[in-house]
């Protein structure tokens, strides 16, 4: 049998990468950025997620530690142009082969070293202050089925977009340091942003604080706001908590000479006609007859993914008795574990009894 040629090997490698890409989340998904994201956007995404899932903020939380490791690994690759190029073409397996050949890879990185080099220390650091537009917070209702199995929601979004406009604009594009006398021999240093052009006024040989005149800057292009709309796809992950955020970085309100704010969807659980959610547990109520309550019954209920749960009983069931079914509740987010299902039994009593029925009941129960 002939050995496969270079073209065949390449096709096999490409196919294996395609299978890998379908099987798990990509580094772009982990950092919640699009594939064509700029280096600056990748930096900001890493900064926010690393601060959120850092072990110092989540002591004893194994899922957060795993998420932090995934975030660090994704950033280590996507922040390196060479590794990012290899990853985009050949996936994680390509990085492993690149590392094996002596080129250095994106696997087995020290997540704390990455965090330390990025923030300047191994301990938690405060996020740097940057001029940002307003965050937009939207409550979004998801069905209990989507929260149980995972799903997507389509959302129409309208926001202001900064567009170039004719001419120049007034701006504060240069820092100026000046001093103000606040008492005999006492001066206060102040740093403020001023326009490029200013006039210093002097009277009688004595210098006073500069009088700055706001003028149109020759370097800063004029801009205008335009309203635009587009569709967004919001991923509902299996087991997400009620009120959990899904963040679209830099998709909030824009601001001139700064970064746009973020768009944050607060995922709320929509009311359900059969189940009620409390944390990771589910609650439901079933109605049984008085005879079923006394002699037992066979009954199943349909779960959120349509699988059947046997809730029958061979014993006596008291009115409003609650029974627990372990592992039949909501899945825990980013975990294989599940909460519990609690079934409350509502016993349906007859509205009336005949004399003969009363006599027989007395005879039986006596």
TrEMBL record:
SMART domains: DnaJ
J domain span: 26-91
One GO CC annotation: endoplasmic reticulum lumen
Main location: endoplasmic reticulum
Keywords in alphabetical order: Chaperone, Endoplasmic reticulum, Signal
Keyword Oxidoreductase (UniProt): no
GO terms for MF: Hsp70 protein binding; unfolded protein binding
Alphabetical list of InterPro entries matching this protein: DnaJ_C, DnaJ_domain, DnaJ_domain_CS, DNJA1/2-like, HSP40/DnaJ_pept-bd, J_dom_sf
Any Gene Ontology biological process: protein folding
Keyword Lyase found: no
Subcellular location: Endoplasmic reticulum
Signal peptide (from-to): 1-24
The name this protein goes by in its record: DnaJ protein ERDJ3B
